[in-house]
Batch of 3 targets.
Target 1
Amino acid sequence: MISNAEIKWVRSLHEKKFREREGAFIVEGEKLVAEALDSGFEVLHCWRRDEIGDNAMSRISCLSSPSPALAVLRQKKETPLPAPGGLCLALDGIRDPGNFGTLLRIADWFGIPTVFASPDCAELYNPKVVQATMGAVFRKEVHYTPLPALCAQWREAGLPVLGTFLDGENIYRADLPCDALVVAGSEGSGISAAVSAQVSGRLTIPAFGGSGAESLNVAAATAVVLSEFRRR
Amino acid sequence: MISNAEIKWVRSLHEKKFREREGAFIVEGEKLVAEALDSGFEVLHCWRRDEIGDNAMSRISCLSSPSPALAVLRQKKETPLPAPGGLCLALDGIRDPGNFGTLLRIADWFGIPTVFASPDCAELYNPKVVQATMGAVFRKEVHYTPLPALCAQWREAGLPVLGTFLDGENIYRADLPCDALVVAGSEGSGISAAVSAQVSGRLTIPAFGGSGAESLNVAAATAVVLSEFRRR
């Protein structure tokens, strides 16, 4: 069973300001909820459609077709920024929740444990982000932090800060380091000027066959870039 | 100016059955409409928001925030299937319009002129597909055709049919041919059984660092696969 007060509470978590106030977030779907229960995140509540009914589930769900299970989890506390090192991803102005979540999923596939996000990125606990991560939300360490200062810190530590641009070095021929901060820019406007100024290396994924294409989408481009780092 | 009859006609093109009956489709957005005018497609109509007003534009638009320009183009006639050869992409059961359009955009970047689609894929002229292609819709030759027969035809011509699976050969170490039909399966269910039975080579993009990730999304995986073919 679910009370009206609980319904109201879960519905409030559809909004960022209540998620922040409550320090909680929503996870939906049979598979994702099963992962959530196994994730180490504290589960505050879990409801199943066959227990509370279609009507109640559709009231608390964020999805257009309410899924069989919905859990409310406690948000992880922010931890201090890790020292520069390893292969890390920095997301610059990725406002679209679907793109942001997909990028975390890609980082997950390529074994990148830490992702930095500029403060104007989508919110990690936005339900659309959570769904798009396909569970990566439970495994990634995500830090929201201004990227120009972060990039400067990596460079001071003697580590490369690499971005993808239309006019960079051919990534297939570049000598890629093991440790680097890889920056991905937004779909519309690319890597911001303030972050570009801090980039130590510019890479390009070449277009083939005079295709006429002007850009790859950010998720595809980032997958290709991370694949190039990992394949060597 | 735009008449009520025209508004009604454009609105009818939001639906597949009317797009098919009229042999027409909608393109929106300053950039995409400019590309459309330059594409060789026959332009049946073009309206600008500053000429017909916000109200009329929002009635004919498929977007939640109507864009400054909307054009109606004539659909291309279906052409006969090309003979097997070159590097081609086959999309198997990609129902999601955003994914389908993004895959055409990726094919465009990597210089793949011809894309085959199983009949249950999203419709090429669906407005969401058109938007997601970022103009690739004007440049790709897309053929809807049953894939098992197509794959058989490629194999009979002595050409490889390659799919990405979770249990295939490590793509980074595989000897990739110049000519091949690369099959991409749907997000939820992968490559269908009937198509799998026709695949001559199984490839895998390895996950790194015991990531726990179960899959890459189809667009990211296809970008990595096509990048591997093109980088060599």
Target 2
Amino acid sequence: MSALEKFFCPGSVAVVGASRTPGKAGHTIVRNILEFGFRGDIYPVNPGCEEILGLRSYASIGEVPGPVDLAIGVLPRRQTLDLITECAHAGVRSLIIPAAGFSDVGAEGRELEREVMEAARAAGIRVMGPNSIGTVCTGCGIATPIVTLDRMRPGGVSLFGQTGMLASGFARWIQTSERFGINKIACLGNKADLDENDMLEYLATDDTTRVIGFYTEGVSNGRRFAEALRAAAGAKPVLVLKSGRTAGGRKAIASHTGALAGSDEVYSGLIEQCGARRVADFEELFDCAKALEWQPLPAGDGVGIVSITGLGCVLAADSASRYGLRFPRPAPRTVEAMRGALPDWVPASNPADIWAAIEARGPKEAYGLVASALADDPDVHSLVAIFTLIPESSLDVMELFGPLAESHPEKPLAAVLMSGDALMYAEWKRTLEGNGIPAYHSPERALRALGAMRALNRKGMGAADAAPATQPARSITPPLGSRDVR
Amino acid sequence: MSALEKFFCPGSVAVVGASRTPGKAGHTIVRNILEFGFRGDIYPVNPGCEEILGLRSYASIGEVPGPVDLAIGVLPRRQTLDLITECAHAGVRSLIIPAAGFSDVGAEGRELEREVMEAARAAGIRVMGPNSIGTVCTGCGIATPIVTLDRMRPGGVSLFGQTGMLASGFARWIQTSERFGINKIACLGNKADLDENDMLEYLATDDTTRVIGFYTEGVSNGRRFAEALRAAAGAKPVLVLKSGRTAGGRKAIASHTGALAGSDEVYSGLIEQCGARRVADFEELFDCAKALEWQPLPAGDGVGIVSITGLGCVLAADSASRYGLRFPRPAPRTVEAMRGALPDWVPASNPADIWAAIEARGPKEAYGLVASALADDPDVHSLVAIFTLIPESSLDVMELFGPLAESHPEKPLAAVLMSGDALMYAEWKRTLEGNGIPAYHSPERALRALGAMRALNRKGMGAADAAPATQPARSITPPLGSRDVR
């Protein structure tokens, strides 16, 4: 069994330094674990009180009555060595250390980290951190961050990285804006023990994880990393966000987590060779994650576009080649079907500018006829509909996408909400993504996500190979999709 | 006087093809002009009715009692030639042609456009279009689009381009999400007559326009374009969004507006040589426009960053050099002031990771002390504060930015709302931008905007030269900033 299993699915968890005071980190962790519905035993440890959030509190980890699968030590960094000793005596073998001030702040911290890790290794304790806010697992209801977190929408995407943002700010953003379902999150901090390689090896064989995304500032064991990445990317789609692209960035990384960032080009080549996909920033990471979570991988590089505006067609065309995609010329049958919507003087092309058709027949019929004509074209492998959120183009967007998804479950669909009213934008995005249709703010972003999916498929890697077993052709109603948070 | 003056500030306007039917383009235009508070005469022209939206309607443009400074002909493309004849007889010299189906759709349309333009030239009529939804001018209350538009926040930014999106979808997006103030908008369509060059020449000397942004798919007269761009960029900041970066994009452009896109590299070099700034997409165009509208140009390339998360520091550092910016090491006095907020073990560096300070002193004091220390540093020329919208870091954000803006009116400020709750994001963005502080969704986007401002200043071009006359050091309360739409 992977050492990581206990960090995500422990049978019992102790919070050392738990607190009765709302706002304190030691209070928040207990609250988060309760909020996420953890079904195992929770042991707050604090010699100064007897009960925390309705749970009995213990004076020391040694007094906890049952076995402790996972401990979180919410203590000042100077008490970490004592914590290791206590955990060793109590038989705890998995420990999260949230405290910062170790290798993340210079020579003195590095020395302290070395001592802590020496003691942990001697006691057989696996450590996440220091400077780590730990893990989230929606399946077993664990959530160890030191900042409050609302229960998250469960799903197939697992994320990890040095940064605590994945289980704090980004977790909230995903929950309230991006809406894809989370399986597991790990914030690795200084990676004094558990690191990217452990995570990749663990998630590669984790059946409930269908998409992996991770952020790294640099890895320490290049050979093991390549092996772990190749194995994971062979099993499911893997998205890699690597910072340290510039010298300035690498310097900042050194002072932040003490990691050596390494040559950026080497990483790019390695990631591609392993069959994973490098993304440029968190926006792209989430854009791709949701498409991979909700939509099938495209069988080819042909994209059909139906757009309310010629500008949408131009911007899409301008970025297609950058993402390895093309717009196949509509087949004769497709042209015939498109002609049913378009005024005589408007050419039936792809990308299709349907403004004149909207003026003539209204948005519902114009989008419906042209989109289904393109989706029926055998050379079209994915379909994008571009909208502008103005009163003149209002329609029930799932009346368009629902039938398309049903008639072509094998073709990924995406929506572009290119501009218009911000309130309509939020409402359309919620409707679309609540139904598993990824919605992007520009044609470029939609094509970037489709290009990533195409690349993951072309390599013969990713979920395509294992589609029947681990990924349904399309989850048109994603888990909890109808239970939108706001 | 520029031929364009009558398109933005006419004393009277006729809508040929005006309609009593809500939803029809000929109805919408009249409605828009009323909505924007136009103070001149409005003449609906429609032989089939006597009154439209409370205005007397005329049977033909020849029967209109007063002079017509500007006509908009909302007619099928086949009636355009007759319209030119009528306008010529009635003495109309400025005409907007919204109809599409000219050079935008192929050979037959090109021939029709040629005939129309020959007749217009013979009659001395200047044309915007065909395939143009015309202009917006918040100053005189003109708004000619064929889709409904709500009255816009007035300000100093003027935008133009082929696309009608600028006065429809993007106009709504700016109004409801981006919030910078609009001076003028022109949608040039097929540019059979008036084009980018006319617009640049006009806006260069238009005193109320303080920032110019435009989208182009290609220009016809390179020499005149270079001259016009250089003159405009010498007078105020100019942002250029040019599509047709790829062969696929250029092909799409040819079928959309019939323009020849030209070599992309030539454009990049030309734009830079002229002292303007090329932007990559509409997101960057708006990101930069708002910063230029609200904030002063930075005197140098030194950026100070205060961030709730080390990740924000790394991402900022990673993109700084790409945008020609650097993070100066804090001066001894700055370090001393920062130390007042930071725990002993946290280094006083720039970018400054203040999470430990927030834990120790709360967000208000931590952000306040570190940000003002950095802003006081003479080597820091602009300041960025990075937030994560989680309950633990809640603060009154204008209590932070207000004093900074007051003590350093010469230094541009920006906020990064990096992640967190989507509702908090919308609220913070509204508060910040209602007070003239641009808010971005990632460190990369904030630095990209500051980099553009720095480049515009370094070239000795843009508003810096003319700052006292045309641009206040900072409009901390932008026009209508407190009158947020939603």
Target 3
Amino acid sequence: MGRTADYLNSAVMAMASAKEFFGNNGRDYAGNISKYYEYVRENDLLLTHTLINPQVNRGVGPSKQPDPFIAARIVEKNSEGVIIRGARMLATLPIADEIMVFPSTVIRSGQDDMPYSIAFALPASTKGLKFICRESFTSDSSYDHPLASRFDEQDAVVIFDDILVPWERVFLIEDPDRANKVNEATDAIVFMAHQATVRELAKAEFVAGLATLVAETIGADQFPNVQEKVVDLLLMAESMRGFINSSEAGARLNRWGLMTPDYVPINSARNLWPRVAPMMAVVLKQIGASGLMAIPPEEVLGSKVRPDFDKYYQSKLSEAEERVRLFKLAWDVAGSSFGGRQDLYERFFFGDPVRMSSAYYAWYDKEPYRQRVKELLHRKD
Amino acid sequence: MGRTADYLNSAVMAMASAKEFFGNNGRDYAGNISKYYEYVRENDLLLTHTLINPQVNRGVGPSKQPDPFIAARIVEKNSEGVIIRGARMLATLPIADEIMVFPSTVIRSGQDDMPYSIAFALPASTKGLKFICRESFTSDSSYDHPLASRFDEQDAVVIFDDILVPWERVFLIEDPDRANKVNEATDAIVFMAHQATVRELAKAEFVAGLATLVAETIGADQFPNVQEKVVDLLLMAESMRGFINSSEAGARLNRWGLMTPDYVPINSARNLWPRVAPMMAVVLKQIGASGLMAIPPEEVLGSKVRPDFDKYYQSKLSEAEERVRLFKLAWDVAGSSFGGRQDLYERFFFGDPVRMSSAYYAWYDKEPYRQRVKELLHRKD
Amino acid sequence: MGRTADYLNSAVMAMASAKEFFGNNGRDYAGNISKYYEYVRENDLLLTHTLINPQVNRGVGPSKQPDPFIAARIVEKNSEGVIIRGARMLATLPIADEIMVFPSTVIRSGQDDMPYSIAFALPASTKGLKFICRESFTSDSSYDHPLASRFDEQDAVVIFDDILVPWERVFLIEDPDRANKVNEATDAIVFMAHQATVRELAKAEFVAGLATLVAETIGADQFPNVQEKVVDLLLMAESMRGFINSSEAGARLNRWGLMTPDYVPINSARNLWPRVAPMMAVVLKQIGASGLMAIPPEEVLGSKVRPDFDKYYQSKLSEAEERVRLFKLAWDVAGSSFGGRQDLYERFFFGDPVRMSSAYYAWYDKEPYRQRVKELLHRKD
Amino acid sequence: MGRTADYLNSAVMAMASAKEFFGNNGRDYAGNISKYYEYVRENDLLLTHTLINPQVNRGVGPSKQPDPFIAARIVEKNSEGVIIRGARMLATLPIADEIMVFPSTVIRSGQDDMPYSIAFALPASTKGLKFICRESFTSDSSYDHPLASRFDEQDAVVIFDDILVPWERVFLIEDPDRANKVNEATDAIVFMAHQATVRELAKAEFVAGLATLVAETIGADQFPNVQEKVVDLLLMAESMRGFINSSEAGARLNRWGLMTPDYVPINSARNLWPRVAPMMAVVLKQIGASGLMAIPPEEVLGSKVRPDFDKYYQSKLSEAEERVRLFKLAWDVAGSSFGGRQDLYERFFFGDPVRMSSAYYAWYDKEPYRQRVKELLHRKD
């Protein structure tokens, strides 16, 4: 895949081009982010990141948890660097070369929260770093699981057991103000969201193609209600394409001199996507129906029931092996554990959709629309 | 408003620039459309049109109805022009200067259907032309009905009682092949759909502003579920803007030499819109709630209960008159007869959404997506 | 109609049978409610009621508004009765014989809120009582507006300008504890909700019949997607019938000796209804489409264009007059101001659906379901 | 589970009580069904069944497929019984004791379709009978997969390779008329649908309990939008309970003397269920969010990272092991392959929802509703 990598690489690129933001607060943080970007770019490294503190008690801040070292934080600073203890969830792609730890949620400026305010990066292979992974969804058979066998990214909780982060890998420290605005101020969020929208477009196109093939294979493509569902997917793809084109047509140099897509369509894309993405699995289920269950495993191909398989699983348009291969792909998108995790991922990629809506509502400039309404209300005609 | 007018004017412009399409089949139809466009443009005329045959029996064609002269058709041709008898529905804006009668639904090439194959335009004030209108939704009070009092377009059935259409106003006649493709071949559909999308964007922005003001007036803007609903409207607006920007960024000269927006985003817009437009009224109702009923008519303002009105209808943010004015506007969008007709209009502007989906499904180039799926299915890894 | 009346009559009946609840706190409130019920029953009176305080500032209680006499409250008590000043919204059916004023929202027990704690009833014709009504939706033509011409209930704000309520019409006074639980403790809420569910069933059945006729008239009843939409309405009706049957099969004597329907299905009905009721108008619009606009007013029937009307508005199944009559009814349900107000009414009949959900969530006994889950989690197999 | 078994056992019970329907067409089919029911009941046997012909070409009947022996059919009849060749899909629960093969889709009475008209039952262990199964979703760990490890029913295609069905196990043969109406005429469909509704109620209650526990564990139960979603599940459960209660309150002796639930609520239940069942997985995903991914496998419990697990995966309300156990259950309902298959199963249990809607539309007695509308249309007031 490499999608997650592209996503973070674009963020590091934006941050490096905004290196002045990181400043030089006793140490050369601007230089650190800049050198880190070059290192990643020149070595073509794959990155992951981890944003959220463990969910022990959502009602209080990290310093008020049962143990103040549950959320990853600074233990001490010494001449070599910073010692980190505690955990972060949810690192996708723990097989990456590098792991970035950046602030995501807002940290207050009080002394209690200071030790949690840090941004850094480390090789994922750093000695002592632990990743506790979920069950793997992969498979040895690309016939049975055409996606899971190739693309299971894994998800993990990362545990820092007094891990040393060398100073040259520290980008922000004990600086809640900068920490809270790093993504917006550097436009990293714009590049991340743009890249995410590209991924979403690719996915919507792929699933629209898949739904078309499934419908055609079983002769369901002639029914208006089936066509309507595939069109829902095509419109989802075209909406995302519209946002991308619009953001690119409106690109401009940002304050750091970097050509940056227009954020309005891109921020709209990332708010629309979790509302529509779940349709992908739903449409495949609606079209594939019970055919998604009649898919025997690969071992049948080389077994003595192969002649039965060839006879009874053929379709009008394709031989049994081909037909089952297609339906297994549909199942891997719409129904397998891999597919279920994909659905979850798309619903929550940028966080809770309700909170995202509130943030979008606050951010969006509604004043011109209010004015238009007020003008009508007081028109003299 | 003038929206319907803009919409049709852009269609005539596209047709005139594609005048070769109309050809010179014994008479100078190319010249007719060209001159008609100039006439409309120079005199800044307002157009309406009428597309659909009366719905007497949907199961059979116009020549098989109880009376072959129910659908408007040619009675005879003479040296002055063509005599037309029968009706067409649904002409919106019968107060226009001109009425265009163009083919919309497919006509077969058989002899029976020949008399129904014609495209022409006439002044709406042509003697003998009858418009049977629905009940008017307008109002004398712009306080009580801020929209209906100004913008009720009316809808009518048009009846041709042996009306003469002079030859210079005929653009197509007894030519089913051209008739069936006139909108696509001239790109008139692209300009009409582009203009419709601009209207939809303006409407979505306006209603988003209105919903924001209603929520703020009653202090409901602080609730995440209310914010989420306004965001649904904002995303609807941004989707339409994305399609417009995308179609303009991808504009190219068409075969007739006219700079033409990219049709893919625009055709997507006109298919997405009827799926989302009904949210406008729904969100206003959900936010305004019973406040949409507590809106006494204008006569109360000058009556002896005015002091009661001022005391009991005020809100935290505004005086009674202002608050009620705002809620009456919301009602005129979401609940009045005018609003109900608007909702219907947006659902069916381009026709039945299910048939539109089927047409979009057939038209959309799904092959690249199919290919991408097939490549994955046969990857050797 | 009489629906609102039945609804309140059943509430008064429940309260009278629970007369001990009202007690004898210096005056015979139990006797008052009992005599009032007999009076209403014997004279077959039509009741309305009004529940909500004016929405001036939702953030603070009635005593903290700009004027403490905005919400209706006690001014003084004397030997004849209680003097009331202030307003209540939203009284539906102000043409009723009697108006009931009962507490709806929770009142705290502090001294400030005392004057707002009262329940009483008065003849709607009481001298000095003012109703400020919204615009009327009625019509002189039952052809043009088959529902609005007969059934517009009106909605009003009621203003008490130092109105005397005689002691025998007072049921509760300065008694927040009883006031806050009167509906639940007397089971009035069960009877009101049961009656409301009966109304909802009748409405769903009627609209299902109407949608069927509209579909048949234009030959759309053969399309699976149209059938699916009518079935949505039929299932809505059957759900309501299931709740009613279930509540009646589970009826039992309540603590006051009154045979009372089971509240669980009935409380479920009143929470499900606002989620599904909006489908009624939507389905009619989806099926009726542009046919809902081609409906000329009654005056056309007696005009010189009547022959045109008869010719062009006929359908396969019915003559023009009959067809238009049917479509006008559909419009009066789905699109006219009357219909728009009906839709709003059904969405908010028992209050804001989000708050209702929260109350239902808190009230519902979820413990047996939790237990079932816990048992599975700790099964030893 | 035994659910599928209960479902079929009730069908056999209904058929046996309607044994006269099967008649005595040369052989004692009435006796066969009667004896079969007693055999199943006395030996407490688990049944499965298989209804659908393979989907090779949906456009033509079984005799017109590439091979007339793709769909299971009669090869020959002899003194011992009937020889069957061909396949049937989709047998759920192939580990059952017995497999029933009954007609499901309509068979025309022509000679070509005769060989496909048969109803019989056989031990699933009959020599030569082949089941080709899908991939198993089960698991060795009831911690990791609390449902899949216990309840994966499997789904299979059944192949008859010249299998002898003894005459006493044949219930219908070469009798398309009876075959096409066996489910309705014997009321087997009523009992099957009633039992399915009971299953659906149990499921909805269970998932509502699970969603409640997940919300409480992470402190999300305080948010109105979360409460609203759990209420959606509770209302789904209460709707099903209303249908069941209603069908039982309306039970009557059928024509065969068997006390039979009222079919109207039960047929409504089976049409409503596929519309609402998908909410179960959706709500769990919406509430559980990324917590559904932070669930390491059982092996972590006994590993050296156990202390880390205990520290970082605890929640405010429960220890790590307990919390993860709960979330794994939610995942097994909402996201795992087992959960994905459950979602598919509930969507298609009784067949394609669109076709079911069409059948329900045709079956439902809409005439009383039509009449009510017509009465209003012609009221003289």
